[in-house]
Amino acid sequence: MKKDSYWKPDNLYYCGLILPAVAVFLVIVFKITGADPGRFLLPCLFHEITGLYCPGCGGTRAFVKLMQGDIRASLHYHPIVLYGSVLYVWYMITNTIQYLSRGKIRIAMKYRSFYVWVGVGILALDTIWKNLCLILWGQTL
Questions:
Q1: Is the pLDDT of residue 1 over 50?
Q2: Of 14, 63, 86, 118, whose CB is crowded by the most CB atoms within 10 A?
Q3: 134 CB-near residues (< 8 Å, 6+ apart)
Q4: All residues at 6 or more sequence positions from 141 whose CB lies less than 8 Å from its CB, including other chains
């Protein structure tokens, strides 16, 4: 008996299409209401308790800087944001081309666990580097 997987390539692609729609919706809501999206963010408990940076510290600032077009600052705050953005755009473009060509142009990026492991490596190295800079030289984000 064949077991169906929940995460088929089509499902991942459709989630990728929904992501920007949700982002645009949220931007419109915050613009109309004048609400500050930052007030909904909770402080990092790991940083509050230990004084050290967690693997996610700097991610929001990196995303904001990337959306402003400041790639250098985005990399400074958190390189995983640029890495994930490049993978997302590459995945969506290649899969859209393959989808629109009805499979005649077979260039779609496939899921590979290698991409995840590269991301884990980036997270680990970034966290270690930021905490070393904090501990040894008192340098903060």
A1: no
A2: 63
A3: 51, 52, 53, 140
A4: 53, 57, 58, 61, 77, 130
Calculate the CA 141 to chain-centre distance. Answer: 19
Q: What single-letter amino acid sits at 9?
A: P
Q: Largest alpha-carbon pair distance within the chain?
A: 60
| Percent above pLDDT 90 for the chain | 57
pLDDT tens-place string over residues 27-58: 898 889 988 877 777 888 999 999 999 999 99
Rounded to 5, what percent of the chain is helix, strand, coil?
Answer: 70, 0, 30
Look up residue 125 and give its amino acid.
L
CA 44 – CA 54 distance, rounded (Å):
8
Q: Which of 103, 83, 95 is nearest to 13 (CA)?
A: 95
Distance CA 106, CA 4 (A): 23
Helix axes 113-137, 79-100, angle to 10 degrees: 160
Beta carbons within 10 angstroms of residue 138's beta carbon: 7
Quick one: pLDDT band at residue 8, thresholds 50, 70, 90?
low
